[in-house]
Amino acid sequence: MAVAFYIPGYLRTFTEGRARVSLSSSPATVQAALDELWALYPGVRDRVVTEHGDLRPHVNVFVGEDNIRDREWFNTAVREGAEISIIPAVSGG
Amino acid sequence: MPKPRHLKPRDGDVVLLVGTMKGAFLFRSDRRRKKWDMAGPYFPGQSVYSMTYDARGGRQRLWAGTGTEHWGALISSSDDFGRNWTNPEQVPIRFPEGSEMALKRIWQIIPGRTEEPNTLYAGVEPAALFRSDDAGETWSLNKGLFDHPHRTQWQPGGGGLCLHTIILDQGNPDRMWIAISTGGVYRTEDGGRSWKARNVGIKAPFLPNPEPEFGQCVHKVVSHPAEPDRMYLQHHWGIYRSDDGADTWNPIEKGVPTTFGFALAQDPNDPQTVYNLPIEADMFRATPEGKLRVYKTKNAGKSWAPLAKGLPQQEAYECVLRDGMSTDKLDPAGVYFGTRSGKVYGSANSGEKWSLIAETLPPVCCVKVAHIGGAKPAKKSAQKSANKSAKKGAAKSARRR
Q: Is the CB of A46 inside 8 Å of chain B's CB atoms?
């Protein structure tokens, strides 16, 4: 089974309105999966990471229910069929 | 998300561009500036710290520096008064690889000189200057300022480490000024290849050396295009004037209730006339004595007098941020400001009388002015004075060249 991304509302402008984006392959890490997502929908990249590739402080990425900040960040392993969720943090004013 | 209302401005209209902590708004009036129609919100939920209007080269283009804590900062433009805004896949203002810095906020956007209609400048946080020479499609970092040895010693002020002021010498394409909080004023004489700190006379009581070469917490600088070397500066402590293009600064504080504040605005018809909005102190950032007053000098800062007619004079604890006050280009000048409590006030007679334009907006970050189809010439007397100043300024610039 392929890996799929959950895309939050704000970013769907850049994914042709899709809330769920399935990759055609099964990348081994979050970084590899994100690279595939950027290739499919380049506009997502600069909103999720800074120009230097750092995860924006108020954006969370989960593999299943695991926040990659609590695992190995972009090196977190991704199993076949995993769902990766990009979710804005509950912050702001 | 709210569906924005839109405007259809006509030639001769004045449009206020109001950026807030939660979106942008436009207000349109005819030249009388009595009745204002509102449009927006644009970018709902996003902070808009900078806006400008570019009418060069036949454009009618709005620019906005937007951002969210989640998805980052973006410079965006609209050619149809806000109906559609650009949202490019790749964020156009970005620090280059190897710089180890990431764009946090866009504090200032200004069009370049008339003879360079495709040039724009942007001041950002962390403090840096960007320039576009293709009408905002692509932007490049000013390396001269970025590589300045002082840069690593600049410190963030309360709002962040921001480059918030960009002033162009309209008579000399190689000469411009920028201001950073906290870093101070810097000037280039070679088109941005090199920059020199220009803060002599500005006191910095918060530093061990109260008169350092740089590090001053400059909040805003303005000057009249016809007389660029006469500059006015609001510092964290003190209001200053320079008569020599920022080589030296002298205090001009006679008549103001406090020397703290953020906003300054230059009168379009007279280089000696400037508006200031005093705030009590850095530890109490509210209008002094609970009175909302704009102060005006008509003699280049030798004295200031309050303008309060139409403004609340009781229990008004307001604050106006550094880009929260602007003037239009008509005569008499329109003066406008927006408060952190979401009110926008305007005067169509150089501050003599004020009226409320809006009162329930999110906290206002910036107020800028657009003249649709250009501003009609000022009255003869004012035009004469501006021409005189322009000649003086051009002669000075020519001497420098």
A: yes
